Amino acid sequence: xxxxxxxxxxxxxxxxxxxxxxxxxxxxxxxxxxxxxxxxxxxxxxxxxxxxxxxxxxxxxxxxxxxxxxxxxxxxxxxxxxxxxxxxxxxxxxxxxxxxxxxxxxxxxxxxxxxxxxxxxxxxxxxxxxxxxxxxxxxxxxxxxxxxxxxxxxxxxxxxxxxxxxxxxxxxxxxxxxxxxxxxxxxxxxxxxxxxxxxxxxxxxxxxxxxxxx
Length: 214
What we know:
The chain is mainly beta. The protein has two helices and 17 strands. It has helices spanning 2-15, 192-200; strands at 20-24, 29-34, 40-48, 57-64, 67-76, 81-88, 91-92, 94-99, 105-113, 120-126, 134-140, 145-147, 149-154, 161-168, 171-172, 178-179, 209-210. The longest helix has 14 residues, at 2-15. The model is unreliable at 1-13 and 205-214 (pLDDT under 50).
């Protein structure tokens, strides 16, 4: 009898470490967790309302001490995947991709995050004159992400690349803003992430309830 009681209480003992959370999956799991220091931890679903004419959307991803980490996915309020972003130390890092509601790639951005815990950060920069050759650049930390690498913009409805921009540590390279004549829209293979989402998650709704403890 005592053993059964302990087992039945175990999930609630696990929840007690959080100041606030939301329950999902039949109240077995939690998301949107706040620890006792008001830090966001673990899996979160963040709702953003319409603002100044911009449509609302939701974000799903991981927080580590209130900093976004790893892959975050963006959905419009109808549930369509419209973006995939990557973060480090709470800032965009690596490739971000944005899609229309049909799953066609609209834009691809490249970012480099600076470590906010350092006054200066060291970044490897490719030598434009030597393929696969890199040198270190020390950057004063402004606590942000820098545009770093190729930015690509795609035509509507599956069109190809219509413009590219290349950045090095936040600065647009001279002559890199290259416009391309719009191509006739044609079928383009959707990114793997979009195909996986359409296959496994499209139409899935997350139901949750507040787990606020006072």
